[in-house]
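In this supplementary section we document a worked example of the pipeline. Step one takes a protein sequence of length 84 as its only input; no multiple sequence alignment statistics are reported here. Step two produces a three-dimensional model, which step three serialises into structure tokens for compact storage. The input and output of this example are shown verbatim.
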Amino acid sequence: MKDKNLPNDYNSLSLEELTIEANKMIEELENQKDLGNSSDKYKNLVKLNNIIENKFKKNIKEISEKSKEKISKINQKNDTKKIK
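The serialised model returned by step three reads:
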């Protein structure tokens, strides 16, 4: 499934905005009586879920990299204090 096929540009939205959109889709699916027409909406919900998952992965990677940098700086400071 290609995430680019969604009607809106979800890639530019924040995680909070994407979660709101996903909740709206879920409500629409729950309230729909004719399940035959819901397959496209369900597919879009799955695509949106994939976008949310990818954004989480990206954020986790960024947080991990920043944490490593900070730990490295702290270790460097501690090493210079030990030398003095």
